[in-house]
Design goal:
8 strands; two-stranded antiparallel ribbon; alpha/beta; 7 helices
């Protein structure tokens, strides 16, 4: 079995739920993908790191950092960074805080000193719905002087996120779309 198929099995068994759920966007949905149940699993985290790293490596513009909004992206940026090291192409990770650090440096971004000024970075997310969180992350990252060259996710729910990001000039690449993961929904 290939890595992508194995990750799909893990996502469906560990992360996918049916019912009535309120999403971060405020929308109500009849299904939920709790990505952290897979990304915090040893095998799932590794597979996410491998497949996101592959998408990052296939980007036209070289990526020299990988980050995302805490908490959903934390295991993903670590996994991608570790996989990149194992591939002898180390890409440092960074985390974007929801609020500026209330003490010390007051940073929004942890790990930024591992990046070169003006670095072209990839942002990762476990699940994308509307893209609203990612727009905030992009603003914070670019306000720090970095360039977002790629946005990647494990699951694109196909609910406007890719379009929102594209409207702002940031194409979204995903390991799975909703349709690829669970098929067409009524």
């Amino acid at each position: 079995m290939d890595e992508r198929q194995r990750l799909k099995e893990l996502l469906l068994s560990k992360s996918y739920r049916e019912g009535t759920f309120t999403l971060t966007s405020g929308k109500t949905s009849d299904f939920y993908v709790d990505g952290k149940q897979t990304t915090l699993d040893a095998e799932g985290g590794y597979l996410c790191g491998r497949l996101l790293y592959e998408l990052i490596q296939n980007n036209e513009q070289p990526i020299t950092g990988v980050g995302g909004m805490t908490l959903g992206a934390d295991p993903l940026v670590t996994a991608v960074s570790l996989v990149s090291h194992l591939d002898n192409n180390p890409i440092p990770a960074f985390i974007v805080r929801k609020e500026a650090k209330g003490h010390g440096t007051g940073n929004y971004i942890e790990g930024k000193n591992n990046l070169q000024p003006g670095a072209v970075v990839a942002l990762v997310e476990d699940v994308v719905t509307t893209g609203g969180t990612l727009i905030k992350v992009i603003e914070r990252v670019e306000n720090e002087g970095f360039k977002v060259g790629l946005v990647v996710t494990i699951v694109d729910r196909q609910e406007g996120g890719a379009e929102t990001l594209a409207d702002h000039g940031y194409p979204l690449k995903s390991v799975f779309t909703r349709e690829q993961l669970i098929g067409k929904r009524k």
